[in-house]
Amino acid sequence: MSDFATTDLSDAAGGLRYVAPTFHDFGGIIRFSGQIKTLATFEDNSKVREAVETQGHGQVLVVDGGASMQCALFGGNLATLAADNGWAGLVINGCVRDCAELKAAKIGIKALAAHPKKSEKRGLGTYDVRLFFGGVVIHAGDWLYADEDGIIISATPLSN
Question: Which residues pair with 152 in a beta bridge?
Fold first, then answer.
């Protein structure tokens, strides 16, 4: 669903969770939504790569990188992989890099900031875990709606 506005969804539905407005748009698509797959990792993007190498089936990968400002967890090569493999988007509680490549990618990407340093590759991270950042709890299987006005999380799919 890309014909929604988070403001309209907010007005029409109850029980929504609103992620704090600390995220910036980096991808070529600003409005995106999908069922959430979660990943917790810290300064290691091995599992991020592993995830986007698989078929996304319109999902949104939500990565809790601990809000680290020390390195990027996602860049241009991974954006191409994610778009090619059918991911709707990513929300990264951390940094990204290769901003020009990200903007050219046909995928939604929200993150805290850009950082030129690449992450470590230690194979660390855990999928499908409960996350807490941006003032909200996020579960694998929840639904995410993101646009230029912000990010909404819902336990169930929403219709406009």
Answer: 18, 145
Mean model confidence pLDDT for the chain: 96
Quick check: 46 and 78 in contact, CB under 8 A? no
Q: In which domain, by residue range, is 10 found?
A: 6-154
| 142 close to 62: Cβ distance less than 8 angstroms | no
Residue 95: what pLDDT?
Answer: 98
Determine the distance from the C-alpha atom of residue 25 to the mean position of all C-alpha atoms in its chain, rounded to a whole number: 10
Residue 82 in this model has a pLDDT that exceeds 60: yes
Does 160 reside within a domain?
no
Measured CA to CA, the distance from residue 83 to residue 15 in angstroms comes to 30
pLDDT in tens, 98-109: 999 999 999 999
Q: Residue 97: which CATH number?
A: 3.50.30.40
Query: Into how many domains does the chain fold?
Result: 1
Contacts of 6 (CB under 8 A, 6+ apart): 145, 146, 147, 149, 150, 151, 152
Residue 1 in any domain: the answer is no
- The answer to whether the pTM exceeds 0.85 is yes
The C-alpha atoms of residue 24 and residue 42 are separated, in whole angstroms, by 20
